[in-house]
Amino acid sequence: MTFHRACALTDIPEDEGLAVDLEELTVVLARDGEDVYALQDLCSHAAVPLSEGEVADCQIECWLHGSMFDLRSGKPTNLPATEPVATFPVDLRDGDVYVDVDTTLNGVTPA
Fold this sequence. Notes:
Blueprint: E1 4-8, E2 18-22, E3 25-32, E4 35-40, E5 55-56, E6 59-61, E7 68-70, E8 87-88, E9 90-93, E10 96-99
Antiparallel strand pairs: 1-10, 2-3, 3-4, 4-8, 5-6, 6-7, 9-10
């Protein structure tokens, strides 16, 4: 695994995502308590950045049509989205967030 520094942990808001460009991919980082998750920053229903949506209850919302995605699995939890988004490994080191964008946790190939 090749982890790339994405940001400081304190850069990620409690209730919204943070878009970060890593390699040739934009990921959204989101927090649920002390846990940090990385997903591709692109709704699977419409090409809309998930980082513009709200984060609550371990889900991130696509602001355009209201689909929610589970931060752990990338799976949509309501319509209109039916396909999951790619999720990536996260490593926390000394207050910084690192992401491996070469490996997906859920087997979804980034769009």
